[in-house]
Amino acid sequence: LKGEGPFTVFAPTDEAFAALPEGTVEELLKPENKDQLTAILTYHVVPAKVMSGDIAGKTATATTVNGGDLAIDATDGVMVNDATVTSADIETANGVIHVVDMVIIPN
């Protein structure tokens, strides 16, 4: 994410990571699971800048950096797959961050 971007990051809270099944984070942090961790983290990143106003009242699909698709529903608040956006439009030098209440796991 140090690249030029633009990027949209759906960033889970610390509580979202804590809500994963016990031992999940520790397993993902092991060197042998680096590919799985990378897949999960890059599933939270879209290679475009998407502000909440761009999608308000709409549904969309967004392809992530890892190649998977996210279902976005902004018709009543904003849902990304099963996660709820709790804080939106935190602008950065190379994109935007939207905070979500759960870790989004690729299918």
From the helix content, strand content and strand pairing, which structural class follows?
A: alpha+beta
Shape: globular
Percent helix range = 10-25%
Major β-sheet strand ordering: 2-1-7-6-5-4-3
Flag low-confidence runs. none
H/E series = EHHHEHEEEEE
Mean pLDDT across every amino acid position: 94
Strand content: 25-35%
Q: What can be said about the biggest beta sheet?
A: 7 strands, mixed
Task: Give the radius of gyration.
Answer: 14 Å
**Quantity of strands, as a count:** 7
Ends apart, CA distance between termini: 23 Å
Present the secondary structure layout.
Elements: E1 7-12, H1 14-18, H2 24-28, H3 34-42, E2 45-46, H4 52-55, E3 59-63, E4 69-73, E5 79-80, E6 83-92, E7 95-100
Parallel strand pairs: 1-7
Antiparallel strand pairs: 1-2, 3-4, 4-5, 5-6, 6-7
Q: In a nutshell, what does this entry contain?
A:
The protein is 21% helix and 34% strand. The chain has helices at 14-18, 24-28, 34-42, 52-55, and strands at residues 7-12, 45-46, 59-63, 69-73, 79-80, 83-92, 95-100. The model has no long low-confidence stretch (mean pLDDT 94).
